[in-house]
């Protein structure tokens, strides 16, 4: 079994999450609300259509070191994230 792991911060707090600590089908919205205990993160349609759950994702590109920022729909599931140089 492959152990999937991701490290990130939410509002400056570090989270180290792996497939043993959080089910792999957990949406970002569920993680923010239930695991990070930030229940102010909203959801409405749970289908990606209304925009209520959008959160800002920002970081450094692993190769170029450039700062990136994306609006992310938090009710969908992350299977993999790939960054492409533009
Ligand atoms: S809950 Fe509607 S787009 Fe996210």
UniProtKB/TrEMBL annotation:
Keywords: 2Fe-2S, Iron, Iron-sulfur, Metal-binding, Molybdenum. It comes from the Eukaryota. Transmembrane segments: none annotated. InterPro entries: 2Fe-2S_ferredoxin-like_sf, 2Fe-2S_ferredoxin-type, 2Fe2S_fd_BS, Ald_Oxase/xanthine_DH-like, Beta-grasp_dom_sf. The keyword Iron-sulfur applies. Residues 17-58 form the 2Fe-2S ferredoxin-type domain. It holds the Pfam family Fer2. The keyword Repeat does not apply. One of its GO terms (molecular function) is iron ion binding. This is 2Fe-2S ferredoxin-type domain-containing protein. It comes from Anopheles christyi. The lineage of its organism: Eukaryota, Metazoa, Ecdysozoa, Arthropoda, Hexapoda.
